[in-house]
UniProtKB/TrEMBL annotation:
<dbReference type="InterPro" id="IPR028081">
    <property type="entry name" value="Leu-bd"/>
</dbReference>
<feature type="domain" description="Leucine-binding protein">
    <location>
        <begin position="15"/>
        <end position="351"/>
    </location>
</feature>
<keyword id="KW-0732">Signal</keyword>
<protein>
    <submittedName>
        <fullName>Amino acid/amide ABC transporter substrate-binding protein (HAAT family)</fullName>
    </submittedName>
</protein>
<dbReference type="InterPro" id="IPR028082">
    <property type="entry name" value="Peripla_BP_I"/>
</dbReference>
<comment type="similarity">
    <text>Belongs to the leucine-binding protein family.</text>
</comment>
<dbReference type="Pfam" id="PF13458">
    <property type="entry name" value="Peripla_BP_6"/>
</dbReference>
Length: 359
């Protein structure tokens, strides 16, 4: 499933799309779902002739969530596979490693649609599909504003990028007149993490925002719920919600809220949701998720970008970045503007309740 099947000689003129992404670390469920959605769209596209008569050859390499491996994998994709387009992976560190790779710097490629949660990368060689981290946080805060809650706690993983996100979030809280009751910095010492969770609970925050990966969030929830069983805990869209429930337990994920950057993947209310559901059933043997839908939409957005380009295929993303336009994807549109390197502004909220996930 992780790379395209061998193409015959008549397909040698294919459009090659490469991606280095985490498929094997403890947090790899995000990468696997993202790839499944992307591959589903390209499988469906190729079954109808591809793009302008050219099949899409989708080549995926596992970066193991390791910056050095990501840089090496991207170098191989550029130099050996001669990719026409490069999709991004999961996480700030590997994304920065790709941007710094000499092979990428020498190329004319634009890194498209990485799953970056904590930082804003200012670089004219990167184009995000999803909204920025701060936009997701602002939506979460707006969700709680009608409740009149003023006391907020923050939990963040101990890394340079999450510390930067913590700083941005603290500034946003002050600007909204909210009170930061306490913070937890998650490290590798489980006993200390448990003590920090207890201390945060004692400050009685109205809700807690977590800046961490799925495993870190799960470990925090298991400890925090021993002391605060009905305090809202909020996180952003790069938490794999089903994995979180498996690791933390059903009781621990009650009273949790997460931003989402795509509509509910399990309903067919819009054409893109229905298309995704139909094609996942046809081409995959796994259930749909927010990440499979995001991958599906990213692949469709790239396809439409290539179809619209008036220059050579490889320059399609550069052409897109130079325009001010909208691309309709079937009930979900992306807005292209030279003022932002984020195509989508869509943010929603998902809430865990006793009977499961509610969008």
């Amino acid at each position: 499933m992780m790379s395209s099947a061998a193409f015959s000689a008549e397909d040698a003129n294919a459009i090659v799309i490469g991606q280095a992404i985490d498929l094997s670390s403890p947090n790899a469920a995000i990468g696997r779902d993202y790839v499944a959605g992307i591959k589903t769209y390209f499988d469906a596209l190729n079954s109808t002739g591809g793009i302008g008569g050219k099949k899409v050859r989708y080549v995926v390499r596992d970066d193991q969530a390791t910056p050095s491996v990501a840089a090496k994998a991207v170098t191989e994709l550029i130099e050996r596979d001669q990719v026409d387009f490069l999709l991004g992976g999961v996480g700030d560190n590997v994304t920065q490693a790709v941007l710094n790779a000499p092979a990428f710097k020498r190329s004319n490629l634009v890194l498209f649609a990485p799953l970056v949660d904590a930082i804003e990368l200012s670089n004219n060689r990167i184009l995000f599909w999803r909204p920025g981290y701060l936009q997701e946080v602002q939506h979460i805060l707006s969700h709680f504003a009608p409740l009149g809650i003023k006391n907020v706690g923050i939990v963040y993983q101990d890394s340079p990028t999450t510390q930067e996100a913590f700083s941005s979030l603290s500034t946003e809280l002050r600007g909204r007149g909210l009170n930061l009751t306490g913070t937890v910095r998650l490290g590798s010492n489980e006993k200390l993490n448990a003590q920090e969770a207890s201390r945060l609970a004692s400050t009685q925050p109205g809700f807690v925002i977590v800046i961490a990966d799925t495993i870190g969030t799960a470990l925090f929830l298991k400890e925090f719920r021993k002391f605060a069983s009905q305090t809202y805990v909020a996180g952003t869209s790069l938490i794999n919600l089903e994995t979180l429930r498996e690791l933390a337990g059903a009781r621990a994920v009650e009273w949790t809220v997460f931003s989402q950057v795509v509509p509910n993947p399990n309903t067919g209310k819009t054409p893109i949701q229905l298309e995704h559901l139909t094609m996942m059933k046809k081409y995959r043997d796994e259930p749909p998720s927010s990440l499979t839908l995001e991958g599906f939409v990213v692949a469709k957005a790239l396809t439409k970008t290539i179809q619209r380009s008036k220059r050579s295929t490889r320059m399609a993303l550069q052409d897109l970045m130079a325009q001010d336009t909208n691309i309709e994807l079937g009930g979900l549109s992306v807005n292209v503007s030279g003022k932002s390197n984020h195509l989508s502004n869509y943010v929603d909220i998902a809430l865990f309740k006793k009977n499961g996930l509610i969008f």
